[in-house]
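Next comes a concrete protein, fold included:
___
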Amino acid sequence: MNIKEYIASGILETYLLGGLTAAEAGEVEAYVKQYPEIRIELDKLEGDLENIALSYAKIPSPTLKAKIASQLDFAEEKEVKVIPIPSFYRQAIAASVALAIVSTASAGFFWNKWQHAEGRVIALEVEKGTLANNINLTKQELDKTNNYLSLIQDTSSVLVTLKGSALSPNSAAKVLWNKYSKQVYLGGLASLPTPAADQQYQLWAIVDGQPVDAGVFDMENAHVLQQLKTIGKAQAFAVTLEKKGGSPTPTLAALYLIGNV
């Protein structure tokens, strides 16, 4: 017998709510005696039902008690004729009260079960959304990596090594430039001084002796390839330190890197 499946079937809840036939109830009671796990689960469910039933009980406030007492007339005691209630009716009333308590308790019990299930569904939806977002981010990174590999393997691509100037001789960087697609990527940044908050490094393409803006870049992304502006023609690349956002012309006194194609 698979005890976990038996407990998960809901038969113990049905037993407590009086929904089983005599034969089915007898079978449950036999299993309770035979298997400690089933007895423990049944005790737990009984406790849950009792707690739920008690949670619906309300104690009248002192104000309400006082209001009722003030409206009662204790001035004159009258003999009250006691009419005995037949045994059948007493049993029917008791059964009705018991049914009302069990119905209320079972409603609360299954409400809690539903609330728990709804919470699990919401949690799974959130987890599903997070997973989908992570998959999308991973796909984007994979697409970038595949694009980098394609550029590197493309015979039209040129890898240019930029070396440090006298301002920062230990600095270095790599420019991956594709002559056909005109794409430019900057990476391999090393030992470049951290710029001030109002400054930013800018890449230049040297075209026929003239500097052409190839875009600014951030040192926070120094460990990855950064795609900059497209360049159709170049004999060299250089990096200068400019004001934040870039400059239309390079500041030669702030030349940090340069390399020939």
Observations:
- Residues 54 and 105 are 9 Å apart (CA to CA).
- The two ends are 77 Å apart (CA to CA).
